[in-house]
Automatic annotation (TrEMBL):
<dbReference type="InterPro" id="IPR005123">
    <property type="entry name" value="Oxoglu/Fe-dep_dioxygenase_dom"/>
</dbReference>
<feature type="domain" description="Fe2OG dioxygenase">
    <location>
        <begin position="198"/>
        <end position="298"/>
    </location>
</feature>
<dbReference type="Pfam" id="PF14226">
    <property type="entry name" value="DIOX_N"/>
</dbReference>
<dbReference type="InterPro" id="IPR050295">
    <property type="entry name" value="Plant_2OG-oxidoreductases"/>
</dbReference>
<dbReference type="InterPro" id="IPR027443">
    <property type="entry name" value="IPNS-like_sf"/>
</dbReference>
<dbReference type="InterPro" id="IPR026992">
    <property type="entry name" value="DIOX_N"/>
</dbReference>
<comment type="similarity">
    <text>Belongs to the iron/ascorbate-dependent oxidoreductase family.</text>
</comment>
<keyword id="KW-0560">Oxidoreductase</keyword>
<protein>
    <submittedName>
        <fullName>GA2ox9</fullName>
    </submittedName>
</protein>
<dbReference type="GO" id="GO:0016491">
    <property type="term" value="F:oxidoreductase activity"/>
</dbReference>
<dbReference type="Pfam" id="PF03171">
    <property type="entry name" value="2OG-FeII_Oxy"/>
</dbReference>
<dbReference type="InterPro" id="IPR044861">
    <property type="entry name" value="IPNS-like_FE2OG_OXY"/>
</dbReference>
<keyword id="KW-0479">Metal-binding</keyword>
<dbReference type="GO" id="GO:0046872">
    <property type="term" value="F:metal ion binding"/>
</dbReference>
<keyword id="KW-0408">Iron</keyword>
Length: 341
């Protein structure tokens, strides 16, 4: 049986949120954390300009080390395509609940993958959960895509999402090359360490309904992404927060940008030089927030560890090498233990 959808709860007219969504006092977003903060902004087109390439690579490396997150402008993905992608997501979530439920994933995780329509169930041990619904499916490589798990409505969903996936892959290739160069390695090193042509990408559509008590709830709890890299496209409603100097700050929305998160796998490959960013999501009192993250991940059975070229007697390995499948299982087990303690 599917859990109650947060969207349905939000539309019920309650003036206060049900207890399972109320965060403990120490987790609630303080008023001052709603102040917006501008994270590093990088012109990705400068990578194609010989006299600007070195400077841009350095900017990407510095942001990855000091922040673990940055924004890219002039990324090459047409604005019309982004608008159609967002329209497709909105149209799906605007469907009546009974038309969305056939896409629900009632089988849970299979082969360490989750695809389909669902509700944020990253609960604490006492049953609290995040204020969000979502849709998850693969977008790359083509051999792993199961179109039966994609929405059939709106009719243009498949066309626009396939093209968006191809465009994001181009952005990812540029970034992985820049990371390699910044680390003093051959340009293809990081991409190859993540599976080369077998690199995978998962798309998630996050839907955060308007919340009558936004200062008592969170859309998503604090976490780092298990991916190597996350390419995020939010709508224009602020809500992404990162932990910066032990304080939560809200990322300022900048139109026409993509937000790039450094994930756990890239932190591991770089032997800690790059920072996997701790982040969470706020919700709005009167606006729906949506976001479209694409998670770039290695194949499940690929072993990922600190790159040998970055290890020496002065820089011992900081992380264990293991398959991505094992990493996911370990992280989930650790999270469950922390929640129950």
């Amino acid at each position: 049986m599917a859990p109650a959808r947060v969207q349905a709860v939000a539309q019920s007219g309650f003036q206060s949120i049900p207890s399972e969504f109320v965060r403990p006092v120490y987790e609630r977003p303080a008023r001052e954390t709603f102040n917006e903060f501008e994270i590093p902004l990088i012109d990705l087109s400068s990578l194609q300009v010989d006299e600007l390439r070195e400077k841009t690579v350095a900017e990407i490396g510095r942001a990855s080390q000091e922040w673990g997150i940055f924004q890219v402008v002039n990324h090459g993905i047409p604005d019309e395509l982004v608008q159609r992608l967002q329209a497709a997501g909105r149209e799906f979530f605007d469907l009546p609940l009974e038309e969305k439920e056939p896409y629900a994933n009632l089988d849970g995780v299979t082969d360490d993958r989750f695809e389909g329509y669902g509700t944020q169930l990253k609960c604490t041990s006492d049953g609290r959960q995040g204020w969000s619904d979502f849709y998850f499916h693969m977008v790359w490589p083509p051999s792993l895509i199961d179109f039966n798990k994609w929405p059939k409505h709106p009719p243009f969903y498949r066309e626009v999402t396939e093209e968006y996936g191809r465009q994001v892959l181009g952005v990812v290739d540029k970034l992985l090359s820049a990371f390699s160069i910044n680390l003093g390695l051959e340009e293809s090193t990081v991409r190859n360490a993540l599976g080369g042509e077998n690199l995978e990408m998962e798309l998630k559509i996050n839907y955060y309904p308007a919340c009558p008590q936004p200062d008592m709830a969170l859309g998503v709890l604090p976490h780092t992404d298990m991916s190597a890299l996350t390419v995020l496209k939010p709508n224009d409603v602020p809500g992404l927060q990162i932990l910066r100097n032990n304080e939560w700050v809200t990322a300022k929305h900048v139109p026409d940008t993509l937000i790039i998160h450094i994930g756990d796998q890239l932190q591991t490959l770089s032997n800690g030089r790059y920072k996997s960013v701790l982040h969470r999501t706020l919700v709005s009192k009167d606006k729906v927030r949506m976001s479209w993250p694409v998670f770039c991940i290695p194949p499940l059975d690929l072993v990922v560890g600190p790159l040998n070229q970055l290890i020496d007697e002065n820089h011992p390995p900081l992380f264990d090498a293991m398959t991505y499948r094992e990493f996911k299982q370990r992280k989930k087990t650790k999270a469950m233990k922390q929640q129950s303690s």
